[in-house]
Amino acid sequence: MHTTTVRSPRAFGPTRKSFIRRNLPYFLIAPSVVMLLALIAYPLLFALRSSFYFWNLQIGPEPLQFVGFENYVQAFNAFDFRAALTNTLILSMLGTTLEFTFGLAIALILLKALPGMNVVRALLILPTTIAPIVVGFLFRYLYDPGGGLLSWLLQSLWLPVPAEGILGSPSTALAAILLVDIWQWTPFFAIVLYASLLAVPDEILEAARLDRASAWTILMRIKLPLIKRTAIIIVMLRFMQIFNTFDTVLVLTRGGPGTSTRTLGYSLYEQGLVNFNIGLVSAMTWITVLIVNVIVALYVFFAFRNEEW
Amino acid sequence: MTIDIGNMSRRDLLKSASVAALVAGAGSLAIPRRGAAQDANTVRVLSVEDPFFFSMKALVPEYEKETGIKVELESLSYDALQSRLVSAFVAKTSDADVIVVDQMWLGQYLDNGWIIPLNDFIAKDNEFDLSDFIPEVLYSSNIWRGQVGTLPVAAYAQGVMYRKDVFDELGIAAPPTETSEDWTWTKYVDTLKSMEGKSFGGKPLFPTVVCGSQPSPIVHMFTQVSASHGANWFKSFPAAPWDFSPQLTSPAWIKSVEVYRQLYKLSPPEAINYVWFDAGTRFAKGDIGMFYWWTPYFYLIKNSGYMTGKKSDVMEKYATAALPKAEGVPQTVSLGGWSLGIPSSSERQEAGYAFIKWATSKATQKKMALWPDLNYQFSDFARVSLYQDEEVKAIYPYLDVQYAMMKQGNGKVTRPPVPGYTAIESVLGLTLNQLLTGSEEPKTGLERANSLFESILKGNLMIPYQKDSYADTLDGAKALIAKK
């Protein structure tokens, strides 16, 4: 008797299907995870390993010897690195705070249906589209003590301008770098916050107005809480961006006078791409990564304490 | 100890690339890389965008027409050039057949095997006349451990530029065109002080201008003063046996900082941020009495800005003079400039040598000098014969002064071309920049720099020195030249 065994499609079909279906999210996310590991985790781990070795490309292409925490000690003992860390923290904290404040103010003005606002909105985005290195050159001319517009403006307003120029004095140079950042990135806050404020339901605002709530109360009790998540995220992003400030420092001051405008980004550039001290720059990179992550973690913890994150 | 990059594994290359990418990411600076396969009939030349580049570029079509070889000429800024070169050499992916090498990079490039010595090419080439080059230039910029690593395409000394009309009106004696015991840094500062607080043409006059920006610009200018005062960076270099114990606390360094601070006080205060051409173009604006700088500024100040071609206010009103010296110390002039070399990774080394030979030849250098654009912008000759060429001298009347400075030059003493130079230059540049503001005594700042130098040099295995020393002398270089 000839018999033919026909396996029911159910014998393996549903099993395979359910396996794929069950693991579909992992399959979909796998390429991204692989890419992330390759592009972020591997270089970071490799840099961690390098930070424990003496490795200078000017002396040789390979790490020469294990030096333990010597590179970390050297980084912290270098007075320019400590100055860079301080300057970077000042720039990041002040820059983010001021840009957020000014950006919010501009966003609130944009909400008013004043004439010409369409043009203003279009113009606002322009500074953020210019490369930082170009902005640096632009401000170098604006700060020029021999007739630069900003120097002239301050002198016209009887405000003191240092004899060595705004960029030449340790007392004003860092503020000058900060001003450049504020000029370029405040519009970013303004545009994003404006978009968020547009999403605040009119009926809530109308109800508040009927209850005779003041503009300040509406801002603090309704608008800001409703755009809080967006605000937290963009503040975090900008903080991390300013922490890497490099281009404007290179063009405007090269970290001087002295160490007054040196930033971590500039120090990393100098040790990595000028001195080619890979061991030291790896240690400095890890110190930077740890500091940024600790600050961001604390910020996220407190900012989203009562929120879903 | 010799480090061979030829044995680098693929895995290590990937590691290096990863680190380079990480560093580039941290510094927000991408290193451009060209991936296209090279045309067999093409020579790729990677240069810095100094003045010589523009006149050389203007003549490249002529070279292409004569030889049928296409030249791909690319230029970068100073910092970007070394970043690109070192990254490429470590990964063995240099995309150039000819590269421009700064004087201080020579030791590092040859010791690491990144460029090849040119001795064999020169020895085989019956047409090549090495003896026409100024020995002091070849010694300073091109010879390392008895090998010719590069050939000079633009040789720089340092010299003085002053305003004839200002000196005449204020009744100040013109500085001499020849070195003498009477022309000292003390006299130079005194001459500047006689212009202090004066006006000229209804405008305030600054006696001088210096470079204050860290790290390279201020070091380039300051080290002329320190070399004049007999200051050495190390206990023993270039004389053998090499001992790289730093010597920044010596009286000569302290005296040099004091002189440089005096010069800064007589300069526009914003000079604290001046890079190379800021100082040069400031003189061209017309409110500076006298300054010293690299000899390309002998012609660059004819323009109102760097390579603008627009005539400056001082075009017909300035003259050049000899550098001052320190009392009782033989003069040492800072020599530097740019040279051409061949990367060991190049597959077209013969073609590279042919280009170098053409670019550094007397004929090409003369054509570069006679190129009329930008108000004639090239007189950085390394060849003796061009300093005696009447046609060239008619355009560049200061060549006698420049040649005299070249003959007193020693780049190995002023800015030693040792591996790891940029790291110690960073420390010195920052220290000098801080000392200009006067907030610290020179002795204190230099002691700190000396300590950092020692730490860096020990970390870089330079103290104690672990490789073979080499008795590097000018006479040795002259003997090498005479062999050809």
Automatic annotation (TrEMBL), chain A:
List residues of the ABC transmembrane type-1 domain. Answer: 85-299
State the UniProt keywords alphabetically.
Cell membrane, Membrane, Plasmid, Transmembrane, Transmembrane helix, Transport
GO annotations of cellular component type: plasma membrane
Where in or outside the cell it occurs: the entry states: Cell membrane
Q: How does it sit in the membrane?
A: Multi-pass membrane protein
The main location class comes to membrane
Q: Which InterPro entries match?
A: MetI-like, MetI-like_sf
Please give the PROSITE patterns that the UniProt record associates with this protein. Answer: ABC_TM1
Q: Which Pfam families match?
A: BPD_transp_1
- Cross-referenced SUPFAM superfamilies: MetI-like
Q: Which CDD domains match?
A: TM_PBP2
**Family, similarity comment:** Belongs to the binding-protein-dependent transport system permease family.
Protein name stated in the entry: Sugar ABC transporter permease
Species of the source:
Rhizobium leguminosarum
Automatic annotation (TrEMBL), chain B:
Keywords of this entry? Periplasm, Plasmid, Signal, Transport
Q: Which InterPro entries match?
A: Bact_solute-bd_prot1, SBP, TAT_signal
Give the superkingdom in one word. Bacteria
GO CC term, one of those recorded: periplasmic space
Q: Where in the cell is it found?
A: Periplasm
CDD domains attached to this UniProt entry: PBP2_TMBP_like
Family, similarity comment = Belongs to the bacterial solute-binding protein 1 family.
What is the name listed in the Swiss-Prot or TrEMBL entry for this protein?
Sugar ABC transporter substrate-binding protein
